[in-house]
């Protein structure tokens, strides 16, 4: 559905994207995660042909993003926190303005989304709160049943209630849509994303399915007989090695249930017990971000 | 989808559109109310200020319309909608034309009709005005607005461009001054329209290139560079060589060859030029003597073989004074001349040359070679009209609507006229007593504008023209044959001249001593 190959984007001397490559499979919910300034929004703007890449290629729906035409845009929904809509029109007026541009616009669906998101149709867009504007952007992106929905930091600045309403609205209509979502609000993505790509300083650190990712990351807690000390030669897959009393903890980035005990015992003496826990996406992200910051990712 | 986007823009901008339209209509109403004699000082003040306001309001309106779906920037919602770029560009163009130029068209048309000009004349004037405005103003501002994201950005970018223009003009003015006005020669002359047309052509070309780049490729940086590049090219058009522009004008002469027999000759047997007294032709007026660091020299000339009832006007007088050894001691512009063969034997005139004092001191006693190149226009009599000298109110087909009245100090008859479109280029006016047939000396009023079209940046497309025809000299030095008591029986005779031929003449005086022709 989306292919990005060796994408570079320079802003003056600053490299916002540095040889980024990833693929978004059809029907997936693909999360682009990374800290602020990692290049998520830039990637999406290149995909939508809002800005031009310095070099590299990006295709979506089989079309070069630089040649994206109204035909493709009619099959793409886009929601962004940075989306300027005419503030002097009411919600209803703007939706009415957009309708004729989409041949597949479903007015019943529009009404149902408006009800679900509890949008004040008669209010001017300029008088909407940030959360309302995001919900409105979602409402303007769904009634034509896009093949591809691109969400750029959709949860930014939303309170929990609005987030829930937004997510409910999104999930209800998701169907077989392919979703590309960029966010650092990992709690929201956790239950939605099927694939994830992690960006750091314009580079892709990894891309894999959510099940693989959560499957290979474990928080391991090793209880020792004596005062714990970090192993002299820890495997490179172990991150965030810490000791507290006789307990040593680390994050295993290549978790193998069968081989973990043997590996731990081969590196650490006096092991009394080993316990491993699955990690939430947020914890995985934090571990990776810290490792990247410390140059160890 | 053009109409659909059009309706959206109307919803968003109708208040601004109406406000600007009302400003244009107020401007028109003021001009109408002023009439021919702008006697009300308040209205006269408004008539100066409101057109300027309308001009800037139109500029901001165009910007606001374009910025409703601005091209630069990354936040605009239209970028992610299936909106055809072609539809958007076309809609913006149409919206700007209808909402900005439409009210101007209506204002000019209604003003023409309100002044009781025919629908055909009023419509033609309105059509010319909006066409002029479209090419000279709307399109350039439209393309300029397309490279900015909002009015703040447009204002900052506009101010930066203004500073560049100001700097360029200052340097150009200085360089031109050093060259005694020989560089920037076509501006403010009858053939200034050649430069103006070149500017329109460049503006349209720039607008097409920039709008295409912006609406279809969104190359804002490149477009902004092009704005500056085209801007410099526009400024450079003021340096179009005189010979090139005048050659174009010559090709457009209505009667080529009509001035072929005209001869300019140096006439040393004439006396030195003396200070004029009483009334003479306007070519003698306003002469100044020994102005600061300059000296005036007047070379006596004779003009022969002009047509009767023809009027000769110099468009440019280029003078070279060449000293011994062939070195050009002075290269500059000579004083403009008007010559009318009125049937008398007096066909002499004096060519004034303002020579820098330092140059004059060096060459005044020696023999110099004087080369004077004339670019000339011969005007032929087109039509004669007349109107009562007191409280006249006439509509003269081909000339317009005119009124006359006495001026406040009762020394002259004020004639004021109005005509849709372009006014007459040249006319002479004289007072004639219908009973006795006596006449006062004619006064000429030449605008020397040979532009084939009419249009203004400010106000309506009405030519307002006129002159004061004196009948009493308050100092008592001059005595007029037709004076105050005869006015009730007198008419102002208006003779309208139109350009027939544009041609050049060269006068070479192999040896002349400047001191002999110094002004007295």
Notes on the protein architecture:
The complex is a heterodimer of chains A (297) and B (520). By secondary structure, chain A is of the alpha/beta class. Chain A is 30% helix and 31% strand. In chain A, the strands form three sheets. In chain A, strands 6-7-8-3-9-10 form a six-stranded mixed β-sheet. Chain A has a four-stranded antiparallel β-sheet with strand order 2-1-4-5, covered by helices on one side. A four-stranded antiparallel β-sheet of chain A has the order 12-13-11-14. In chain A, a hairpin with a 2-residue loop joins strand 4 and strand 5. In chain A, helix 5 runs parallel beside helix 6. Chain B starts with a helix and ends in a 7-residue tail after the last strand. In chain B, the strands form three sheets. In chain B, strands 3, 4, 5, 7, 11, 12 and 14 form a seven-stranded antiparallel β-sheet that branches. Chain B has a four-stranded antiparallel β-sheet with strand order 8-9-10-13. A three-stranded antiparallel β-sheet of chain B has the order 1-2-6. Helix content of chain B is 40%, strand content 26%. Chain B is of the alpha+beta class and 520 residues long. The interface between A and B is medium-sized, with 25 and 17 residues.
Structural class of chain A: alpha/beta
Count of strand segments of chain A: 14
Largest sheet of chain A: 6 strands, mixed
Largest sheet of chain B: 7 strands, antiparallel
Q: Percent helix among the residues of chain B?
A: 25-40%
Give the percentage of residues in beta strands of chain A.
25-35%
In short:
Chain A is α/β, with parallel strands linked by helices and 297 residues long.
Question: Which key features would you list for this structure?
Answer:
heterodimer, A: 297 residues, alpha/beta, 6-stranded mixed sheet, 30% helix, B: 520 residues, alpha+beta, 7-stranded antiparallel sheet, 4-stranded antiparallel sheet, 14 strands
